[in-house]
Amino acid sequence: MPQGFFSPARVRAARQAARVTAASLIGFYTALYALDRPVVAVYALFTPIALGVLSPVPGSGRQRARTVLLVLPVAVALTALGTTLAVTTASAVAGMLVIGFSVSFAAAYGPAPAGVVPGLLLFYVLACFPPYAPQTLPERLYGLLAGGVLLIVCERVLLPAPSPPSYRARIAAALDLAAEAAVSVAQGHGDDRERARHLRDEGRALRFSQMPPASRPTGAGRTARGLAHAGSATRRVLDQLARTIEKPAPRPGDDPHCATLLREVAAACAATAGALRGTRAVPGQEMLEEEVAAFVAVRARPSEDRAEASPRLLRHRTDVLTVAASALTVQTAVTVAIGGRRSSPGMPHDQLWYARPSTPRLLALRLTGNLTLRSVLFQNAVRTALGLGAARLVAGTLDLSHGFWVLLAVLTLGRTTAGATWSTVRSAAVGTLLGALAAGALLFGAGGATVVYAVVLVPAMFVAFAVGPIAGPAWAQGLFTLVVSAAFSQLTPATWRLAEVRLLDVLTGCTIGLLCGVLAWPAGARAELRRSAAELLRAVARLVALTIADLVDAPDEVRARGDATEEALRLARHRLRIAEGAYAQYRTEGGRGPGGGGPDWLAALNCGSHAMAGAHWLPRLDHGPAPPDAVRWARESVARLTTALERAATFPPGGVHVRTPPLPTEVISAAPPLVRPSLVDIDGWLRNLAADLATVGGGDADTPSPLVRDDGRDTRRTQGRSRDLR
């Protein structure tokens, strides 16, 4: 037997095929032969197929059953609407355009809604075709509900899918590792490259691309947003600890305040991990908030001790405070996600903006945020609606006898790029041709022997649903042609011409789908990702410039700008969400990840995330006006960085290597004690952003970028560039 024959993907497909086959055929045979209700039989057959095969509903058997139960009322409504609008071709096409867009756009709500979109559209497709028969609506609904209930039962009891790994558990494991690393730094252990590598690896494991769809907290609700925020902040904690642990650490006695804060960070990480596992109560963040506030006060306290005022110690304190701030973000996000907390006095409001709005408001914000031509979700919904509307118009105008097969082909074979659509329809056409030949031979040989079709349908359906999702569109379409031929031959007498009709309908649907793929955003997410990532970097440039200006400019100049920084922060957050959506689709289209050549999109997303984190926290750590020399340094540094950000938005090969002017030691020494920590914080933030830019244009993650050492000399180092965004 070939190696890998029982691969996990094949086993999952076979188990799902068994569940769908059992649910479909129990309802089909019972309605057709025991009750003599062919309309009920059709809907009992197609409901498990729609929600079990056509819709890749993610999750365990319990989660899938729950999703099917929740969408059954929507399926009932779509079936009733399709039955009503089938009165004319015009009304059916209009309904297809509206429903096609609305249902497809619901994918913005998260993985479960996105998974059921194709299946829900199939219910309208089935119902909106001639003959116009509103009197059959009750039977259609009986079949739909019977098929749905049977699928729910099979998902729960027949080889139920195991629970996927939990994102909560993944965050908890990462927090345990962070707690150990924080204690290690507190004890004075530094310059440990191996531990730093392990921390970064654990951070990369938190990327959504490393999790199954059902485990990704991509929904619009408060819980999903909180877990996503906690995961992002946890990755930042790990990356910051990795950078800190790579440097020689001061001895614990040199700065007991750092050691105390790191131990509190470790305790907070451990407590949050326990809460995520359900073994401890949801922790409050008051202890860590108080420790952070005390540490900030110690940093700002005037001191005559030269060691305590040294730039090296100031930078170490900045690193420790950065870790603590990220750990506090993790803890607060978890209290929102699983504890239901709606506010946090110690956190910047914009970081927890999703905590206060109601769930309907959050859902509305997700939709309105994607109502733009720049959103790939919006583009996909428009493309789907146009394709299905055109298919319904063609099928109705030409009076095709099994016209819903045309729409089914458009629904299942359409892709988000013209190239992928052409490849898919070409394979599907070949598979349908071979399947039609096999079906024609079956129909010709069996004639009117219904029992033959009833026997053939069972293995044909199982093989089609077990092999099709793994082997590709050629096998899927060919085997499904045999399935529908065997099924429809039991409903009405059929000849070999049924296979011919199936072939022509599928080819018609392939042609329509290909035209839509060529005319509507043929490049898919690739072009949109470049555009949205460029807009993100430009928004970051403005945000960084305004944040630094607020920190170093005179108070009257800051007041004159009004809410410009807040507006820049909101715009950057919006650009980041759009860019993340484009990147997610880009990867599903087979787009290259880091190291695959071309621009490193993850580095651009990282840059946006790091910029917003700094814009949240730096104003809270400001301790007064900077001296003129420090203001000049800050303005020169931010001018170089913003220029580099604008250039990085063009994604030049090799990235953008920006040299931020070093923060001179004499500037630190001459600054008032209250201001010194803020200057070091600004310096660290700008350097991290410069490190992100070094890989935006593409190149190896291990290729160092030219930055500037603390003593002003050029050196080559990576500054621990992180590629851990989803």
Which key terms come to mind for this protein?
two-stranded antiparallel ribbon; 726 residues; 26 helices; mainly alpha; elongated; disordered C terminus
List the helices and strands and how they pair.
Layout: H1 8-34, H2 38-54, H3 61-85, H4 89-105, H5 111-127, H6 137-157, H7 167-186, H8 193-204, H9 222-246, H10 256-277, H11 286-300, H12 311-339, H13 359-369, H14 376-397, H15 404-413, H16 418-446, H17 450-471, H18 473-491, H19 497-519, H20 525-552, H21 555-561, H22 564-588, H23 601-617, H24 628-648, H25 665-670, H26 676-693, E1 705-708, E2 714-717
Antiparallel strand pairs: 1-2
Helix pairs in contact: 1-2, 1-6, 1-17, 2-5, 2-6, 3-4, 3-5, 3-6, 4-5, 4-14, 5-15, 7-8, 7-9, 7-10, 8-9, 9-12, 10-11, 10-12, 11-12, 12-26, 14-15, 14-19, 15-19, 16-18, 16-19, 17-18, 20-22, 20-23, 20-24, 22-23, 23-26, 24-26
In short:
Helices cover 70% and strands 1% of the residues. A two-stranded antiparallel sheet has the order 1-2. The chain has helices at 8-34, 38-54, 61-85, 89-105, 111-127, 137-157, 167-186, 193-204, 222-246, 256-277, 286-300, 311-339, 359-369, 376-397, 404-413, 418-446, 450-471, 473-491, 497-519, 525-552, 555-561, 564-588, 601-617, 628-648, 665-670, 676-693; strands at 705-708, 714-717.
Secondary structure: number of strands: 2
Could you give a short account of the major beta sheet? 2 strands, antiparallel
Q: What gyration radius follows from the Cα positions, in whole Å?
A: 30 Å
Overall residue-averaged pLDDT value: 84
Q: Structural class of the helix and strand makeup? A: mainly alpha
Q: Can you count the helices?
A: 26
**Major β-sheet strand ordering:** 1-2
| Shape verdict | elongated
Strand content: under 5%
Instruction: Give helix % range.
Output: 55-70%
* CA(first)-CA(last) distance: 37 Å
State the order of secondary-structure elements, H for helix, E for strand.
Answer: HHHHHHHHHHHHHHHHHHHHHHHHHHEE
Task: List low-pLDDT spans.
Answer: 699-726
